[in-house]
Design goal:
single chain; mainly alpha; 42% helix
């Protein structure tokens, strides 16, 4: 099951966008995908996002039985 994505507008300085666009291209990602990657890595390093092993699939959330 794919995770739900939240869409929202993001305004960036043109120079910042160009730099991210080039970096994303170098990493074979879309700009949106690279921004998401960078945010996820920053959150993980700050201890604000649990680290998930890529070799182990995520466990589905238990369903509410009420």
């Amino acid at each position: 099951m794919a995770k739900e994505k939240k869409a929202f507008p993001l305004r960036l300085d043109a120079d910042l966008h160009r730099a991210i666009e080039k970096w994303a291209e170098d990493e074979f990602r879309s700009v949106n995908g690279h921004i998401e990657y960078l945010l996820r890595e920053a959150l993980r390093r700050a201890g604000r996002l649990p680290s998930v092993s890529r070799s182990k699939p995520l466990e589905p959330a238990p369903e509410d039985t009420q």
